[in-house]
Amino acid sequence: MASVSYHIANLLEKMTSNDKDFRFMATNDLMTELQKDSIKLDDDSERKVVKMLLKLLEDKNGEVQNLAVKCLGPLVNKVKEFQVETIVDTLCTNMLSDKEQLRDISSIGLKTVISELPPSSTALAASICKKITGRLTSAITKEDMSVQLEALDILGDLLSRFGGLLITFHSSILQSLLPQLSSPRLAVRKRAIIAIGYLVMSCNNTLFMELMDYLLSELGKNTNTSTTRTYIQCVGTISRQAGHRFGEYLERIMPHVIKFCREEDDELREYCLQAFESFIRRCLKEITYFVPNIVQICLQYICHDPNYNYDEDDEEQMETEMDEQEEELGSDEEYSDDDDMSWKVRRAAAKCLSAIIATRHEMLSDFYRTVSPALISRFKEREENVKADIFHAYVILLRQTRPTVSPDPDAMEQEEGPIALLQNQIPDIVRAVQKQLKDKSVKTRQGCFSLLTELVLVLPGAMTNHLSSLVPGIQYSLGRDRNSTSNMKIDTLAFLNCILTHHNPIVFHSHVKVIVPQIVAAVGDPFYKITSEALLVTQQLVKVIRPLDMKTSFDFKPYVKELYSCTLNRLKAADIDQEVKERAISCMGQIIRNLGDCLTNELKECLPIFLERLKNEITRLTAVRALTMIAGSPLKIDLRPVLGEGIPILSTFLRKNQRALKLCTLACLDVLVVNYGSALTSTMINEMMREMPSLINENDLHVSQLTLTLLTSISKSHKPSMANVPNEILPQILVLIQSPLLQGGALLAMLDFFQAIVGLPKLTFKDLLQVLIKPIYAANTPSSHSVFAIHKQAFHSIAKCVAALTVMCPVEANNVVNQFVNDVKNLKSTDSIRLFALLALGEIGKHLDLSTHNEIQKVILESFASQNEEVKAAASYALGNVSCGNLNKFLPFVLQEIESQPKRQYLLLHSLKEIISCESGSQAGVYALQPYVQSVWSMLFSHCECPEEGTRNVVSECLGKLTLIDPPSLLPNLKHHLGSTSPYTRSTVVTAIKFTITDQPQGIDSLLRNCIGDFLKTLQDPDINVRRVALVTFNSAGHNKPSLIRDLLDTVLPHLYNETKVRKELIREVEMGPFRHTLDDGLDIRKAAFECMYTLLDSCLDRLDIFEFLNHVEDGLKDHYDIKMLTYLMLVRLAHLCPSAVLQRLDRLVEPLRATCTTKVKANSVKQEFEKQDELKRSAMRAVASLLTVPDADKNPQMNEFLTQIRSSSELSSMFESIQKDASASSSDTTVMDTS
Predict the structure, then answer these.
(1) Looking at the predicted structure, is the pLDDT value of residue 845 above 60?
(2) From CA 825, how far away is CA 859, in angstroms rounded?
(3) What's the predicted TM-score (pTM) here?
(4) What are all long-range contacts of 394-398, with beta carbons under 8 Å and residues at least 24 apart?
(5) What whole-number distance in Å separates Cα of residue 71 and Cα of residue 567?
(6) Which residues pair with 1076 in a beta bridge?
């Protein structure tokens, strides 16, 4: 401390020197000291430093003054509150000084202090802010204009950072700001508006009302156009900054703004249009009524150009096109009129239209009828900046046409849908853009390519008939003359890549001759970004000139050498950008894949380069992908020269930590083994196989899957190399097979592997069967009766493997089946053995006819009586799958058992479900099942009345899957049963519909679309259970096939929202001994309704009235624990999807969140209650953290009050901090690129 004080005293002494350099250096050293976190000043040093710095603000040397001001920032955080007040007092006094330089430097000082005040120390910030505010409000009323400007500027800064702390001053601030709106100086008005914008973020409703009433009355008077402009600007700013509070005044404001829009004053029109844009973005619901009117005004003013005749311009353009000396003629840009403000009006109209298009997805078809033709006609706009905004508006229109939420393809593509309307306008768009592609302005041409790229992404193939119109423009922008900049070339190449990717190759063949030379030139360009983009285009162009998946008559040979040479130059170069290296490798890979048969001699030079790139750590991944591409070519490229050196390099990659490299290498090796198996030596194969055991494990199933696929390929082409499998690889596979995670692709790869190796030396059927079943049968001890030998999922995996082996060796099937049947019958068998034997019988029976084994039905049925539920389920599964092997024998038996065995009904129905699921998967199965459909259908309906919900659910699944087999006749039958008097039947039928809806296209979809409305009418059913299952079905449709329900939402949503309400008549009290327990029979249906709402956010957001939706979310925030948890999740989604709507309702959303976070659990509650409440708080906090990501949410008074409450509680504060950390970590994880 003493040494610091001594050092500071030294510096202060130098600051008094007459030499300005001494003063400057001393101040600079002080700045360095103050920026150190470790510095601590004693009271005396604090006082002296503050005094000296304030004195230096009046120094004669400007540089010293500037440094002194900079020192104030770090100083504020190092001295006590009293000293900060001294600084602020002095600065405020200096601001009113007669010396202009002192005034300026003091105002900079105040801004520095405000920006550096620590937000954590609210007490300090509040007292300093209050001190400054009083002085500023008096300074604003001064007549000196420069003082006013500085004071307003500082006040704006203060309100933006600490508006919430100045609530007591808000009224006096407003009183001092309002007169400045009519100041004779426009700069004062502008800064007053900015300050008012920051004020309305945190002021209370009374003050907001007072401000709005004042502005409305002034707009009503309209005493002077100049002040009217200012008031309109102010209204626009208020709606931008506090749109959520502005909505209720919109009805009174809009008539004024619309009226002033008609005035003959371009500046006023511009401000009115800017205000409209702000209203549209910030008051989504309230502006709806006025949108058609605003669109008309925008369409009128986007053409507002009174000083220019566009007809003459068109004629002039036609003449210039005919004239060879085009460069020398006057261009549009030479037109100049300094007084012409009409371009600002047109720009504001274009921006307003952009806002309308971006926020009104429901009006998309109307936009294509009215707005789209108007925008297209204005592509000829003469002012470059306006033209850019018009292009931007059209790009937004196209983006809205390919929405991010699951679209409804039928609605989009129907006769009057947006896609069809856009399709009809393509010729007009191309005609309008064609002229602009030859414009001298780079910005204009970039806008054109941006628009055309978006158009091609929305409508792939859109340019098929118009390429001849676009190619000259592409050539013009890729030219080597002054018409093209580097960015222009990059954008042109990106567009070219886009259209090559999204069009049929044949349409380009007539243009290849003119495109190739320019692309070749671009590949050789010295600027690496152009080269990189050109290589991408070359790669795509190669696929176009010779597509391998279709036959064409185009002669590609003249272009092969040219494309090869330009790419080779880049591939050889070692001293180029990383991106260019990678793209050159990929591009050459594509050239060899598609054109390799014409490059036989060149391959001797080119393929060794790939080997070099494989050895380089930076390029090896790209080189592996390129080799995979070449090896998979149908042209059978000769890769033998590089395999000897290449395979060992690839094999070493299998032990690297880089996951992407492992995956790509495995895929590459598999293609090489399949296509070049005869060229691979046993040494090469052994090198690969040496690395494989460590790759087969449950930690990465994708790597395991590809490894098994590679092994399967090797076993087919190199059987002798499989000698090491039993000792080295099989043990790893047997560990993996017991993993509960094994499923999907990895399991299928394992089945293929076993089928491929069975019969090889030491890998006979019996050998493999023994090692597979050993874990189950080896655990045959009495204690194993209660616990399974391996994980339940492993039983299924091993059973599937045994079945795969049995199918490959049918001669062994009889013995194996007999063995398993005996194992099931054997009373000494453990539950593990019984369970496995039944599953294995089921898997084998699915593929082979087991009807010759007479005992099998009896044995399986006897297992239905097992004490173990898992064994019963396995027996049910086995009966269903065995029946698939011989439907004619087993299905009648199953149906008969269902009728005669009411106690086993549930298990037998599960068997029936397995039969239907299995048979409906193939055309032959459907054909075999057809004769039984009617009898099964009738039998199922006879079981609809079962009081057990579990049984009814299985019946529903069977009915749903049967309906998929013959929708035209069975769907109407289901619909007919909706009229049943029994609620059980109605609920079964509605649940059956859920099982007809899958996320894949089905033949039933069009029929379902026509009648799903009838099934959803059960949302009005008198029975609560029927309504609940209707909601579950609705949820399934919303999740898997939103197109089924999108058009029904207007009628369905009121009934859905109705089910979110708590019904008192469904709440009852139950006495449990001395306690009374409250039961809510409506909870399940409310939960189902909220789940539907959550699903709709993902799939049908554009069809929801978000404010009505939020009303019910608010109710859910005050409901039961389960529903609160759901609504918190909804809030997180809503904050991301509809931030402006959420901001408008923030006051009402914060209150229930606060109630949850501040609820205390009773001291004598059980542990679960504490855990439940803790989880509830955490979820509520996550919702609060998401709400804070909404722009301007942190300016909301209620939210700020709640945050203060959180920070004041140590428990809540630590919880909130950890949640915020998690949120920021997960968001950064999602943005970080996967570098593996």
Answers:
(1) yes
(2) 7
(3) 0.79
(4) 394/451, 395/450, 395/451, 395/454, 396/354, 396/357, 396/358, 397/357, 397/367, 397/368, 397/371, 397/372, 398/422, 398/451, 398/454, 398/455, 398/457, 398/458
(5) 57
(6) 1071
Residue in 303, 242, 231 with CA at minimum distance from that of residue 268 = 231
For 166-193, give the DSSP string: GGGGHHHHHHHHGGGGG-SSHHHHHHHH
pLDDT at 311: 61
Q: Which residue has the tokens 């009229």?
A: 979
Residues 1172-1192 have a mean pLDDT of: 86
The residue written with tokens 């176009």 in the block is 544
pLDDT reading at 295 higher than 50: yes
How many other β-carbons are positioned within 10 Å of the β-carbon of residue 919?
22
Encode pLDDT of 728-744 as tens digits: 888 999 899 999 998 88
The mean pLDDT value of the chain amounts to 84
Q: Is residue 903 classed exposed, middle or buried when 0-12, 13-18 and 19+ CB atoms within 10 A define those classes? A: exposed
What SS3 state is found at 1070? Answer: strand
* Helices marked H in 1066-1166: 1083-1099, 1106-1116, 1121-1137, 1139-1144, 1146-1158
Backbone φ and ψ for 1075, nearest 5 degrees, come out as -100, 155
**687, 635, 494, 614 alpha-carbon torsion, rounded to 10°:** 20
Dist. CA 23–CA 68, nearest whole Å: 10
**Distance in angstroms (rounded) separating the CA atoms of residues 564 and 567:** 5
Tokens of 1039: 């999740």
pLDDT digits (tens, 9 = 90+) for 31-72: 888 777 777 777 788 788 888 888 888 878 888 888 888 888
Nearest to 1236 by CA among 796, 551, 658: 658
Cβ count near 386 (within 10 Å): 23
Tell me the average pLDDT across 1037-1066: 86
Q: Which two tokens stand for residue 301?
A: 């003013």
Question: Can you give the three-state secondary structure of 687-700, one letter per residue?
Answer: HHHHCCHHHCCCCC
> Is the CB of residue 437 less than 8 Å from the CB of residue 466?
no
Give the integer Cα–Cα distance in Å for 74 and 68.
Answer: 11
φ and ψ at residue 1072, rounded to 5 degrees? -120, 90
Evaluate whether 15 touches 26 at the Cβ level (below 8 Å): yes
Contact 129, 115 (CB under 8 A): no
**What is the radius of gyration, based on Cα positions, of the chain?**
38
Distance from C-alpha of 730 to C-alpha of 994, rounded to nearest angstrom: 43
What whole-number distance in Å separates Cα of residue 495 and Cα of residue 475? Answer: 12
Inter-residue contact 1192 to 201 (CB < 8 Å): yes
Q: How confident is the model at residue 294 (pLDDT cuts 50, 70, 90)?
A: very high
- At 1075, is the secondary structure helix, strand, or coil? strand
pLDDT tens-place string over residues 957-984: 888 888 888 888 888 888 888 888 888 8
H/E run at residue 1068: strand 1067-1072
DSSP 727: I
pLDDT 10s digits, 84-97? 778 878 888 877 77
- Based on DSSP, count helices (H) and strands (E) in the chain, helices before strands: 60, 2
Compute the average pLDDT of residues 348-359: 93
Beta-carbon contacts of residue 142 (< 8 Å; ≥ 6 apart): 96, 148, 151
409 — pLDDT class (breaks 50, 70, 90): very low
Model confidence at 455, in pLDDT bands (50, 70, 90)?
Answer: very high
What is the mean pLDDT of the segment spanning 384-397? 93
Mean pLDDT of 851-873: 84
Calculate the dihedral angle through the C-alpha atoms of 926, 929, 934, 935, rounding to the nearest 10 degrees: -160
Q: Residues 992, 974: contact at Cβ < 8 Å?
A: yes
Beta strands in 426-556 (DSSP E): none
Is residue 781 left, alpha or beta, with left meaning phi > 0 and alpha meaning psi from -120 to 50?
Answer: beta
